[in-house]
Amino acid sequence: MHDSTVGTASTPSPGVQVKDLTGQRFERLEVLGYAGTNQHRAALWLCRCTGPDCGGREITVPGNSLSKGNTRSCGCLSRESTADRSRIHGLHGHPLYKVWQGMITRCHSPNHKAFARYGARGITVCPRWRGSFEAFYQDVSDGYAPGLQLDRIDNDGNYEPGNVRWATDKEQRANTSPGLTVGGRTPRLPWWWPRM
To answer: How far is residue 136's CA from residue 142's CA, in Å, rounded to a whole number?
Structure first.
């Protein structure tokens, strides 16, 4: 939707050549009439959205956006599509969904506050999990319980099948890099090792 300002239908000025779109449908938009031109001299059309929850909302749209299929509704199609993507697996509200999002973000988004400890160290999420919450859920949901955290068995390894487990906070803290690197590798200390 380029211009959501509602106008009133009118007729083009004398001498202005405009293909009349009145009465035509473009997906959910029904063209009510000509509504003038925009700053680029493109013809604008007053349209009514026929979406199920729109209540006949009227918007003004450039004609080329209608004919090219760039604007097909008042915005309701986009909102519905976003909602459908969120519900597609039915687990959007599951606690593992947030675990999955956090894992991907800290490994692949340089703007994440923990990126330096994950992505910047070369830790990634395997393609199977990165591309599909359903695959991640299928591979790791067994053994999950509230209060457990996703832990990489090899702290220098990636998030991938065979290298993750559900761990308590104490177990996970014991599996962190102590900051000592020997021969390019940072050894893990067992949970019972005394910490200073």
So the answer is: 11
Q: What angle do CA 69, 72, 77 make, to 5 degrees?
A: 130
Distance CA 25, CA 61 (A): 13
Phi, psi of 160 (to 5 degrees): -160, 160
Neighbouring residues of 141: CB distance < 8 A, sequence distance ≥ 6: 96
Its pTM stands at: 0.47
Biggest CA pair distance of the chain: 88
φ, ψ dihedrals at 127, nearest 5°: -55, -35
Q: What is the pLDDT of residues 64-102, one digit of tens each?
A: 989 988 888 888 887 776 655 555 556 667 888 889 999
For 67-102, b/e burial (b = at least 16 CB within 10 A) is eeeebbbbbbbeeeeeeeeeeeeeeeeeeebebbee
Give me the long-range contacts of 106-111 (CB less than 8 A, separation at least 24): 107/159
100-109 contacts at long range (C-beta below 8 A, 24 or more positions apart)? 100/129, 100/133, 100/136, 100/137, 103/129, 103/150, 103/159, 104/129, 104/130, 107/159
| Best CA proximity match to 109, nearest among 123, 99, 94, 97 | 123
Q: How far apart are CA 174 and CA 143, in angstroms?
A: 20
